[in-house]
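Below is a filled-in request sheet from our internal design queue. Each sheet records the structural input a requester submitted and the sequence that came back. We keep these sheets so that new team members can see what a complete request looks like end to end.

REQUESTER: design group, bay 2
PRIORITY: normal
MODE: inverse folding
CHAIN LENGTH: 90
BACKBONE (tokenized):
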């Protein structure tokens, strides 16, 4: 069962734009969709799709505050995968 969840998470990370989002959220802060759009230059509908997918997998969480939805990392340890890959000399 654990391996299927790991596979689901890796599948969820298999898009460069999702990795960009994770890199932005890595600092532990919550970001409104508009703030994410400024950093990750894609169409709002496409960003919405990626955020929804990452939330459904459990990688990120969201909180609505008034008219804004704020996103943050749910799996803070996930960014350690970046360090591991960067240090593999690939």
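RETURNED SEQUENCE:
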């Amino acid at each position: 069962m654990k391996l299927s969840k790991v596979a689901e998470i890796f599948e969820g990370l298999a898009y460069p734009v999702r990795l960009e989002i994770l890199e932005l959220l890595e600092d532990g802060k919550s970001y409104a969709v508009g703030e994410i759009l400024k950093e990750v230059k894609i169409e709002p509908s496409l960003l919405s799709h990626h955020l929804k997918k990452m939330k459904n997998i459990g990688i990120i969480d969201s909180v609505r505050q008034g008219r804004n939805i704020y996103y943050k990392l749910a799996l803070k340890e996930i960014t350690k995968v970046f360090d591991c890959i960067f240090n593999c000399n690939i």
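SHEET NOTES:
- DSSP finds five helices and three strands in the chain.
- Strands lie at 31-32, 60-65, 68-73.
FILED BY: M.R.
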